[in-house]
Amino acid sequence: MKAKKKWMFLGLTVLVVVAAGLGYWKRIGIRNTLYRMLDKQIPLTGDVYGYYGQEVKVKENLNEETSFQMEDSYADKIDTTITKESSMVDTSWQIDQQIEAEVQSGAYTFEEPEVIMDPYQISPLTGVAVFQTDEEYRVRVTVKGKTKEADITGVTVKAKGHRVPIIGLYPKTENSVKLELLDDNDQTIKEMELKVQTDGLPEEMDDMVSVEKSSGESAYGLTIISGQGVYYPFAYDVNGDIRWYLNHRTSTYGVFQLSNGNYIMQDNYGYVSSVTKSFPAAFYEMDYLGRAVQMYLVPHGTHHEIIEKEPDGNLLILTSTLQDHVDDKIIELDRKSGEIVNSLEMTELFGNDYTEDVIDWAHLNTVSYQAEDDTILISPRNLNSGVKLNWTTHEIVWILANPEVFKGTKYEKYVLTPDSDFLWHYRQHTVYQIDTDLDGNSDTVEITMFDNHRNPEADYYDHEKGSFVTVYAVNEKEKTVSLLKKLKVVKANVTSNTIYDADSGHIFGMCGTVKSGTAKTGMTYEFDYESGEILNQYYINKNYYRAIELEANYETMSEAMQQPEDYIKGTLRPLAETTAKIKEPTQQLSEGLNFKLTAGILFAEMRNRQVSQIIFKGENKSYVYDQSFLKLREEDYLLRTESIPIPLTTLEKGTYQIYCVYQDGYYDTAQTITIK
C-alpha cells in the first residue's frame, strides 16, 4: 500500500512539473504573440551572468545623451584623489612642441640633420629628420627598399624649417634614407643619404608575413593588417617585409583610413557594456608618425566600421542599441561638435521580424555614403544582404540578396531581380559602391563585396566551398542585378574585405579569418581584375579584421601641430541625478574597481559585470551611473575587463564621495572628486 502511494505521489509530481512547464511555454507563447502584435522586441530568455544589485533606485537612462567638447585642461576644474592621465592628443602636442623647438634652433643643416626616432613613442619604424635651409624648399624623402618597387617615398610642404617624416623603415636594419631638396619645378637641387638604424620587431611579429606568390610589384606600397587577432597593427610591403607598426594596443577592429591621410584608431581603453561583449567607446584620429589630433567618445560603443560620410566630413559609425541586441545601429557623428546628428536602428527597417531570442540578429559590418542621392549602403551580415536606403528618410531603396532570403515577406518588393542564374553570397563582409564603371554601362552602379559564403542554414544554400571576391552591377532604375566577377579565395569564415583599386585595375581579397589546423590565420590576395590572375598572395600568421592601404599624407606630417582646441569631443550617456537619500557604506572596496580621469571623463575599470552601480554622493545632489539593466547573456565575457567612460560635465559644483555596488555588495571606494 505504501509503495502504491509512493508511485502515485511520484506520478502526481511528474504531472505537476509537466503542467507547469507547459503552462510556462504557453505563457511565453502568448507573451511573444502579444509583443509581435505590438511590433515590440521580444525580451531575451535564458541565463544571465554577473551582478546586478541596486543600492539606489534610478530610472533606466540608456538612451539619454550628453554632448561635450573639452581639452585636457578641463581636469584642472576637478580636485580628486583619482589619478589624472593626459589624452594621447595632449601627449602628442607636448612632444610636437619639443620637435618644433629643435627645428627652429638652427643647430641642424641639410647636410647634418638630426633624426628623431619614433618621435611620438607609438610607431617605432618611423622617424623625423629636422634641419633648416636658407631658402624655402620641398623635400622628397625615400626609404630605400630591398627592391626598387619596395621604395617608400613622400614629399613635404615648402619650408625653411624642415621636419621630414620618415615612414617605412626596415626593422633591425641600417636603413638607407635619401633626402632631396626640390625647387618650384620639383627638380632636385641637392641630395644626401642618411643611415638610420632601427631596433627589431616585437617577438610576436617575427614571421608574421610570408610570401605565397609575388609578381614583384603591387598597387599598394604598404598594406596595413589590423583588428581581431592583430591588436598591434602593422604594414608590410610588396616583398612581405613589415615596415610600419604601432606599439599601442588597439581594440577589436583596429584602424580605419581617412581621406586626409590620417586614420582612426579604436582605442583599447574606454568600453561600454552590452548583453554580450563590451564595445570600445573611445577612438582617436592619428597620423602615421603616431601623432594624435582628435579624441572622440560615443555612447553605445563602436564596432565594425568608422568611415567618413564624405571626405573630411562627418563620421558614420556602426554601434549598437544595447537593448537586448548588438551590432544593430548606425549613427552620424558631427566631426566638429561631437554631437550625434542622425541615427538608425535596424528595427526601423525590418521591425522585429528577425529579433526573437537572437542577440546579434543583424550584425552590421559596413556602412558607406553616396552623396549623389543621399543614400547609405549597409551590410547586415546575418540577413545575407546588402541594403541601400535613404539616409534622411530611412526608406529602403533596394536589397541585394538571393530572392529566396526574403521570399514571402513584406521586404520581397525591395529585392533586386537577378538577370541570370549565378552563385549568390552568404554571410558577406564589406559591401561598397564604387565609382568605376566596370561593365561599360552608365545605367548601372558597381558594388564590391567579400562573400564569406558561410552556411545560413537554409534549404537554398549551395554548399559551395571557399570564399569569394565579388562584384555586382545594379541597375537601380530597373531594379535588376548582374554578377560581374566572382574570384575564389581561401575559405574565410568571418571578417575579411574586398577592395577595388581604380588606378591599377587590381582587386584585393583580404581573408581575415582562415582556419589552419587548430589556429586562426589570414591571407591576402591581389588580383588583376580583368584576367582574374593572382598577382600577389601573402600568408598572415594571425587572423585579422581587415587589410587596407597605408595612405600617409607627407605634407601634413611635415607641419607642426596647431595648438589643439576642444579636441576631446563626443556624446556619452550621462549620470542619472537622484534625490534619494544615500547612506554611507559600512565596508570599503580594496580591489576590483579602479579609476582614472582624463579631462572631464572618468574611466571606471573593472572586470565585466562585477560593478552594477557607481554612486556620486554630493552634499545637495547625488548622481548614479547604473548598468544593472544590461544583463550579460554570454558567460565567456565575464573574463573580460571594461573601462566605462563616465562624463562629469553634468555634475554640479561640490564634493562627491564615490560609492559602488560591487558583486551586489555596497562599498565605499575611498575616492572623492570636487567640481570647482
Automatic annotation (TrEMBL):
InterPro entries: Arylsulfate_ST (IPR053143), Arylsulfotran_N (IPR035391), Arylsulfotransferase_bact (IPR010262), ASST_N_sf (IPR038477). It holds the Pfam family Arylsulfotran_N. Residues 115-196 form the Arylsulfotransferase N-terminal domain. PANTHER family: CYTOPLASMIC PROTEIN (PTHR35340:SF10), PQQ ENZYME REPEAT PROTEIN-RELATED (PTHR35340). This is Aryl-sulfate sulfotransferase. The lineage of its organism: Bacteria, Bacillati, Bacillota, Clostridia, Lachnospirales.
